[in-house]
Specification:
Layout: H1 10-18, H2 27-31, E1 38-41, E2 44-47, H3 49-55, E3 63-69, H4 79-92, E4 97-101, H5 106-109, E5 118-119, E6 122-125, H6 127-131, H7 137-161, H8 164-169, E7 177-182, E8 186-188, E9 198-200, E10 211-213, E11 215-217, H9 222-229, H10 233-241, E12 244-248, E13 253-255, H11 262-269, E14 276-280, E15 285-288, H12 303-312, E16 315-319, H13 324-339, E17 345-350, H14 352-358, H15 379-398, E18 402-408, H16 415-427, E19 431-435, H17 437-440, H18 446-456, H19 472-484, E20 489-491, H20 493-505, E21 510-511, E22 535-537, E23 539-543, E24 548-552, E25 572-573, E26 580-581
Parallel strand pairs: 3-16, 3-17, 4-15, 4-16, 8-11, 17-18, 18-19, 20-22, 21-24
Antiparallel strand pairs: 1-2, 2-14, 5-6, 6-14, 7-12, 9-10, 12-13, 14-15, 23-24, 25-26
């Protein structure tokens, strides 16, 4: 160790690292926990959040480090890899370091993007369990969400077939659910484009009400967003009960409490509130908890995981989805506001590849070879694209948090390219580190670890981008102008009318922007730092359980499609050993 990731795929590196992976019975001594605070689950374990936080409530918090990125290519720029590499690098410097990352969806795992387990020697282990369900959180969310839909559709059928008197005999009251005002869809954790828009209830009267419906990917469920945000089991139960499933014919919301299903949903999710403990390839502890999409939800690992990590570790690293315009903005204005936690440092992950794309490089398409513009030195192209990185540095600095830029080094990068990026970053008043964690693990991340340690010594004048008392529509304007760089906001008439009602009805709900992660704008084709554009808002969704108002900026797909060359074609099991091979 380290292993050579140019010669070994990640799944093989994981198998080698797992040979010395700590066992559940070793966890209490390694993490300073009591035996009853660890819940064994095969060769993994969950951490009992309530017992740990109660016992350690008076222990001072460690340093809080958030990891974000520039506007990524469709391939991703290694945010999880960097999070894990940073933890390994901090440990090499003798620091007690750990973290919390999100659980991956099976949709990208079986498609193109991969497992989100990091990579090379900055890898989460055991990779197979992590990639294929772990301890069941996504399955629990899928079942709880679909139970909500069962409760809704069954109630609609009964109300169609029974009189008020017959309903009363069954202990039910008529809810008068409007079949064209259903707010929720079914979920599954796969990329199934054929299920985005469907018709259900075909057949006879015993087969339900015929109506349009559809699916979304499980991690886009409001239940996943709730799991990321709650502080305890009571909070989870109350949040699940607020979910709006549909509206009645008078326009009143129908909630899970109205359908009398919220308690059963909480019962399904009761164990999911405890984070699962995994490890880096160098055996530092990393919790895995929650996995909400960042372009429709909060895009963060859980508040519970961060609260545990800040008590257990001297340096706790957490990741935010996509670039600073989405993930960091939501981290600051939603997660930190709700949790009361304040970060010390934000690491902005950048690659030479991503900056060349923003400088006008050819399209980066998953599954296709990279153009040689990305594999050979091209300083003019790179220099032009650095503007995108500088914009993200500016976003972080608006919060008062110290930015540290990590150049996630690729084998095709040149020293001149790294020097060029470093010069611009330092001129912008930020620290910059070149990191080779993918290839060398913690030894390759020492420069990054040193930069983060140094930044943590400085005081942070933390501030939100807007006060919560600011009206919802005004908050959207602030985010569009101050974070994305838009000239303003253009509300479609129906969206504007809806927003005016919602900001009066739900003044304390968080603003959860939903837009593409592939551009600072709403248009994924606009790279770099677009100028002279206006942000269109076509609708506003209400996530009453999570307390989110969600402006839709452009087209957002809630179910990713599966490509013509998906990863599942290369995944198999060795029938002699039971080992899963080919994950990534």
């Amino acid at each position: 160790m380290p292993w050579d990731p140019t010669q070994m795929p990640d799944w093989q590196i994981s198998l080698e690292a797992e040979k010395n992976m700590p066992k559940p019975e070793e966890v209490p001594d390694r993490l300073g926990l009591e035996k009853d605070e660890v819940i064994p689950y095969g060769r993994l374990c969950r951490l009992d959040y309530m017992k740990i936080l109660q016992r350690l409530k008076d222990r001072p918090d460690g340093k809080y480090i958030e990891v974000t990125a520039v506007t990524p290519t469709p391939l991703g720029e290694g945010k999880t890899t960097t999070t894990l590499g940073l933890i390994e690098g901090l440990a090499k410097r003798g620091k007690n370091a750990g973290g919390c990352i999100r659980q991956p969806s099976s949709a990208p795992t079986f498609n193109i993007k991969g497992t989100a387990a990091g990579g090379g020697n900055a890898l989460l282990i055991p990779m197979t369990e992590f990639s294929l369900g772990l301890t069941g959180d996504i399955n629990n969310i899928t079942n709880a969400h679909n139970l909500m839909m069962v409760a809704l559709t069954a109630r609609m059928q009964h109300e169609t077939n029974y009189t008020d008197e017959e309903l009363a005999k069954r202990g039910l009251r008529r809810l008068n659910i409007h079949p064209k005002k259903i707010e929720q869809r079914w979920v599954m954790d796969l990329g199934a484009q054929a299920l985005r828009n469907i018709v259900i209830g075909l057949g006879n009267e015993m087969d339900g009400v015929t109506m349009q419906s559809g699916f979304m990917v499980s991690v886009a469920s409001e239940l996943m967003a709730i799991l990321a945000m709650v502080r305890d089991l009571k909070d989870l139960r109350e949040s699940l009960g607020r979910i709006i499933v549909a509206y009645d014919r008078q326009g009143n919301p129908i909630t899970t409490e109205d359908l009398e299903v919220a308690g059963a949903m909480c019962a399904i999710m009761r164990e999911s509130i405890n984070p699962t403990l995994c490890w880096t390839a160098e055996y530092q502890p990393v919790m895995v908890h929650a996995g909400p999409f960042a372009n429709i939800a909060v895009g963060q690992s859980s508040i519970i995981g961060d609260r545990i990590g800040l008590k257990l570790f001297e340096y706790h690293c957490t990741e935010s989805g996509f670039g600073a315009d989405i993930g960091f903005e939501k981290f600051v204005n939603v997660k930190c506001r709700h949790s009361g936690l304040k970060p010390n440092v934000s690491v902005i992950v950048a690659t030479v590849r991503s900056l060349k794309m923003h400088g006008g490089g050819p399209a980066v398409v998953p599954g296709r070879p990279l153009d040689e513009a990305y594999t050979k030195e091209n300083l003019p192209l790179l220099e032009k694209g650095i503007e995108n990185l500088l914009h993200h540095i500016g976003i972080v600095k608006k919060s008062g948090v110290k930015p540290v830029v990590c150049i996630n080094a690729f084998p095709t990068d040149t020293e001149e390219e790294h020097r060029l990026v470093r010069r611009y970053v330092e001129q912008a008043g930020a620290r910059c580190a070149i990191s080779n964690h993918w290839r060398y693990g913690g030894d390759g991340a020492l420069e990054l670890a040193d930069a983060v340690i140094d930044a943590c010594r400085e005081e942070v004048d933390f501030k939100f981008f807007y006060p919560l008392e600011m009206p919802f529509m005004q908050r959207v304007e602030v985010i569009a102008r101050e974070v994305y760089g838009a000239d303003g906001v253009q509300w479609l008439p129906a969206a504007e009318a809806k927003a005016k009602v919602l900001q009066e009805k739900y003044p304390d709900f968080y603003t959860m922007m939903a837009k593409t992660h592939l551009s600072l704008s709403h248009d994924p084709n606009l790279k770099g730092v677009p100028k002279g554009w206006t942000l269109p808002i076509r609708d506003v969704l209400v996530f009453a359980g999570a307390k989110f108002l969600v402006p839709l900026c452009g087209e957002i797909r809630l179910v990713p499609g599966t490509s013509s060359d998906p990863a599942f074609r290369r995944i198999d099991v060795d029938v002699e050993t039971g080992v899963v091979k080919g994950l990534f």
